[in-house]
Amino acid sequence: MRVKFSKMHGLGNDFVMLDGITQRIKLSPEKIRCLADRHIGIGCDQVLLVESPRNPDADFRYRIFNADGGEVENCGNGARCFAKFVRERRLTGKKQLLVETAAGMLELSLMDDDQVSVDMGAPILEPEQIPFAADRRAETYPLDVDGEVFTIGAVSMGNPHAVLLVDDVDTAPVAALGPKIESHQRFPQRVNVGFLQIESRDRARLRVFERGVGETRACGTGACAAMVSARLRDLVDDSVEIALPGGTLTIHWSGPGQPVTMTGPATTVYHGQIVL
Ligand SMILES: N[C@@H](CCC[C@H](N)C(=O)O)C(=O)O
After folding, report:
1. Is 248 a pocket residue for ligand 1 (Cβ < 6 Å)?
2. pTM of the model
3. Which residues catalyse the reaction (predicted)?
């Protein structure tokens, strides 16, 4: 069956966007892996499928799949691309959207300068809800990786994140350490791994080894989790510019119980059709 798609990206974290409202789309892990493959498919970090909502208060529902075929709970860059996609595809004329995701309801605002601001909800810090094996909630945790102990922050933005502080992201062992922490036994659903360099109280740099993908050029939920972890350690103020390899996100968080706000761009690359 031939389906229309859009190729989009948020700071280089790229997506195959599928409209499952006006098209009948049946996805399987094999099909997702094929769509995401950069040699035999379209190529992307994640596939995002837009559907009609189940909750009558929501405008849409979307589902998000990693390149390895696994369905995941949340995606910050995908949320911004979604807001632009539903307008471009004329699925809505609204600039304020409420969308149902596996991580709960998100509120999105399309701004005039092509930026999208997303209320990502409050971070989850209780270890069992992340999920992360720990006796009690703490700002940081020791994590033994092959006999070497690293200090990590553990945060869920609907999806799980570990955050490590590094002196310099350019030399951080992302490729070596990322996969080991991603599948560490204390994270039973695996984890996204952020390497965070604090430059000042309102500026930081971040690289993220994403669960189910590998290192990406940007990770929106990773930037939110990094902000939360840094704020809990009192290393930053309420608003931080986080520079990722693909560009910069503005993240705002005023403390536990409060929602995290992420603002950044969404870019359409091209529209196409593929036989699924
Ligand atoms: N790139 C995303 C996160 C996508 C999901 C993640 N890899 C996971 O497995 O949780 C973002 O921008 O947040």
Report:
1. no
2. 0.97
3. 75, 219
The answer to whether residues 187 and 167 belong to one domain is yes
CATH label of the domain that carries residue 176: 3.10.310.10
Summarised one tens digit per residue, pLDDT across range 135-184 is: 999 999 999 999 999 999 999 999 999 999 999 999 999 999 999 999 99
Contact 181/153 with Cβ under 8 angstroms? no
Instruction: For ligand 1, say whether the CB of 213 is within 6 Å of any of its atoms.
Output: yes
- Report the share of the chain in percent with pLDDT over 90: 98
16 and 85 both lie in a single domain:
yes
How crowded is residue 8: how many other Cβ atoms within 10 Å of its Cβ?
Answer: 26
Domain count along the chain: 2
Q: Which residues constitute the domain of residue 32?
A: 2-119+265-275
Same structural domain, 48 and 133: no
Residue closest via CA to ligand 1's atom 4 equals 75
Residue stretches of the annotated binding site for substrate: 13, 46, 66, 76-77, 159, 192, 210-211, 220-221
What's the average model confidence in pLDDT over 6-21? 98
ipTM: 0.99
136 in the same domain as 253? yes
103 contact partners, CB below 8 Å, separation of at least 6: 73, 74, 121, 157, 158, 159
75 is catalytic: yes
Please tell me whether residue 79 adopts helix, strand or coil conformation.
Answer: helix
**pLDDT 10s digits, 93-120:** 999 999 999 999 999 999 988 899 999 9
Our answer on whether the CB atom of 156 is closer than 6 Å to any ligand 1 atom is no
User: Cβ neighbours of residue 16 under 8 Å, at least 6 residues apart?
Assistant: 5, 6, 7, 35, 36, 42, 44, 46, 47, 48
